[in-house]
Structure prediction request, 407 residues.
Amino acid sequence: MSGFSRTTNGPPKGGHYIMSTPISRQLLIVTTELFAPGGVQRLGREVVGALADGTAPPEVWSLLDRDSSAHANLYLAAGSRVRLGLRALARAIASCRDLRVVVMHVHLAPIALPMLLRGAQVSVFVNGVEAWRALPPIERWVVERCDRVIAISHYTARRFRQANPWCDARRVEVCWLGVSAAPLVPLAPLEPLLVLMVSRMSREDRYKGHELLIRAWSEVRTRVPQAELVLIGDGDDRSRLEAIASEAGVAGAVRFLGSVGEEELAAWYRRCSIFVLPSEGEGFGLVLLEAMRAGKACVTGPGAPAEVVEDGVTGFVVSLQEPQPLTDAVLRLLEDGDLRDRLGRAGRTRFEQTFTSRHFADRLRQLLLLPPLSERTAPAATPSRGQVNPRRGVSVSSRRGWGPRRQ
Prediction:
C-alpha cells in the first residue's frame, strides 16, 4: 500500500500523484496548537518543518498557543477564534490569489473561508476521530470548495467518506506521516521484560486502550512473572486507570510515569523490549513510528495503525474486542527474544525507508505542488514538545527560531 495516493469513489487506491509544474505562492499554515503534546500538535510541527525550505518560511497561525514573544512569522491567537477570524478577514481585504493556505484541522476550515473567497488555494487535513463524523454545514462548505483534502491514512480517508457521503464526488489525498531523528541520549540498558505504551490519559480518549492493556497484564504476569508495563502520559483519566491496576492486582507491575521530557522518552524507547498501542481510534499512530525508529517490535490494533505496522513483519496487529489476542501477542514477544529482535530490526528498516521526516516532506511538497527539497536539504528543524504534560504548558525550544518559550 502506498503512503502517497489519491482516492476517488470507492476504496482508496495506491499509486503516486504525478506533480505538475510547481506554483510559486505564499504559504500560510493554520493550526490548532503547536507547542503541546498530542498527535495533531506533532503533525503541525512536522508540517512547518516540511514546508520551511530555508528561503521563504511559511507564516503560521495557531489558535491555542499563548506566548507573546513569538517569531515574526508566527501569530498566536491565545484561544480566540474571533481573533483568528478577524486576522483572516484582514488578510482577505486584498486578493489572495498568491496565497496557499494549509489548514491542519478540519474544524479550523471556516477560518480559511474569507481567503478562499478571495482566491487562495486551500488544503485541509483530516486527521482522525474529528473527521469520522458528519461535518457541520460551514466546514462542509469550505471542504467542498477547497483545493485539496489530505488524509493522513487510508483508514481516515475511508472513515471520512463514510461519514460524509457528499465527499464521494471529490478526491481525497492520502499522505502518510513521518518523524525526525530521535534526540541524542546516553545509551540506556535494554530491559527484555519491559513493555512500553505512550499516550495521553484522557476521558475523551479512552479508545487509546490503556484499560484493556492493564486488564490483560494479570494474565501476562502469570506466564512471565517479571514482566513490567510502563505507561507514559498523563491526563484526567489517570486516577481511574491507577485504580483499575490496583483492582486487577497488578499495581506493582504497572508503572505510571506521567509526563516526561523528550530525552527521557527517547531513553524509555531504547530500554523497552516491546511497544504496545492497543488503540481503536487512531488516525495514524505517530508513537508507532517513534518505537520503530528505536527498533522495537510493536503490538497494535486494526485501522490506521495497520498501515504502519506490518502484521508478522514489524509487529502484530490484533483484534481489540477482548483482551486475549492482545495478551497472546505480548506474551509471544516476551517469550521469544529472537522473534522480538527480528521484528524490531524490520521495523527500523521500514521506518528508514518510508517514515522519516524527509519522506513526509517529499510527499507533502509534491501534493502541494511545491519544488522538492534538494538532496542536501533536510526538512527544517521543528519545535520540540519540551515537557510532555497535557495539563500544563510546554517548554519549547527551536534551532530555527520557530518556538516561543512558555513559562
Observations:
- The chain has two domains: 4-178+356-367, 194-354.
- Residues 6-23, 384-407 have pLDDT under 50 and may be disordered.
- Residues 4-178+356-367 form a domain with the Rossmann fold fold (CATH 3.40.50.2000).
